Amino acid sequence: MELSDFRDSLSKSAPPDDLGSLLCALWHDAKSDWSRAHEIVQDEAGHDAAWVHAYLHRKEGDLANAGYWYQRAGKPVSKKPLEEEWEALAAALL
Q1: Cα–Cα distance for residue pair 19/79, rounded to 1 Å
Q2: Which own/partner contact pairs does 29-38 have at CB distance under 8 Å and 24+ positions apart?
Q3: DSSP letter string over 8-55?
Q4: Cα–Cα distance between 92 and 48 in angstroms, integer?
Q5: pTM of this prediction?
Q6: pLDDT single digits (tens) 40-66
Q7: DSSP code of residue 62
Q8: Low-confidence winner among 1-5, 25-29, 82-86 (lowest mean pLDDT)
Q9: How far does the chain reach from its first CA to its final CA, in angstroms?
């Protein structure tokens, strides 16, 4: 799946069946369901999951918690606009 396909899937009422959990979390986030996105990612492990978790907490405005998750992801705290970070995450996970 390409990033454009992933973006196109946002017009649907449910995420594609073949999305991994982290992309599914980003899908729900893009559909304005932060709680569902967070619910999905909080049960995941690894650097990519920590990056998505960090992004979600930065979007929420909980910068201290976001900083913790960026550290767990091995990434610097993002200063990019949220939309740019979302795209970077989606592209990296695809």
Answers
A1: 27
A2: 29/55, 29/56, 29/59, 29/86, 30/86, 34/59, 34/60
A3: HGGGSSS--TT--HHHHHHHHHHTT-HHHHHHHHTT--SHHHHHHHHH
A4: 9
A5: 0.94
A6: 999 899 999 999 999 999 999 999 999
A7: -
A8: 1-5
A9: 7
